[in-house]
Amino acid sequence: MINRADFFKVALKPLYQDLLNHSECVLDKQKYCLFCMQWGESFPEEKNSGILFVGRSVNGWINAELGEVDALFGDTENIETNIEPIFNVKDQMKWVEDSWGSKDRYNTCHSPFWRVIKKVSTEYHLEKWYKYVAWSNLYKVAPSLGGNPDDFICGWQFHNCCRILQKEIELLSPRVVIFLTGKSWSNPFLWYLNGGKEPSIKHSLDWGSDYTSELMKIGTFYCLATEHPQGKTEESHVNAIIELINKTTDNVSSMKT
């Protein structure tokens, strides 16, 4: 029987090949990096279960340049390459916890994005929370030196990234997809996922001084659109996210480990 990682690879690799093919005449490959989703080793295999967190883009990543899709997906038997695979990396989501409080590398504790994800996740998974969640980004290509892609780079990759995100959701089959991006970033993707129509809001919650988080259902999964955590009050933000997640089920305890 094919394992989950191999099944994901078969589905995702052609989409990444299309994205890279599309980059040939547009990008200086030495200035951009490529991201692929990560999932914890205990992310539920049951349909419509688990939480997928989605950010805007990576702030620098494993490789400082774009490479061949075979190398990026670990299929290096017949090629020579210095490119590190970005798919199914050995530490997957565990690197977030391993880097918590680090003094000699990126310290995830200093990131509002990861602090919010950890606080939300530990509401449902008290031990080794990182094993049970998944993470992706709206935009897969980002500047190697950090920062979000500009409007041109976002527009250039938008359609391919929509296709990839849709496939990620199909493969992972989460109960909830949480967009920690701000609505101006997530709305075009939400419309795409909803067949080109604006999704209807099932529940909304105001929090902080001027923010609202919204819960929608698209097909069999829920989408929770909220702000990027940078500069926001974390406690009220986390509480709003948890309250909306709990509205997706009649049995909250079934989500906990």
CATH names the topology as: Uracil-DNA Glycosylase, subunit E
The proportion of strand residues reads 15-25%
Give the overall pLDDT as a whole number.
Answer: 94
Poorly predicted residue ranges: none
* Count of all domains: 1
Give a description of the structure:
Strands 2-4-3-6-9-8-7 form a 7-stranded mixed sheet, with helices on both faces. Helix 1 runs antiparallel to helix 5 and helix 4 packs across helix 7. It has 7 helices and 9 strands; from the N terminus they run αβββαααββαβαβββα. The longest helix is centred in the middle third of the chain and has 22 residues.
Describe the structure in brief.
The protein has 7 helices and 9 strands.
Brief descriptors of the model:
33% helix; 9 strands; 17% strand; 7 helices; Uracil-DNA Glycosylase, subunit E; two-stranded antiparallel ribbon; globular
List strands and helices in order, with pairings.
Elements: H1 4-23, E1 32-34, E2 38-39, E3 51-55, H2 69-72, H3 94-98, H4 112-122, E4 133-137, E5 141-143, H5 151-172, E6 176-180, H6 183-193, E7 201-207, E8 211-218, E9 221-226, H7 234-246
Parallel strand pairs: 3-4, 3-6, 6-9
Antiparallel strand pairs: 1-5, 2-4, 7-8, 8-9
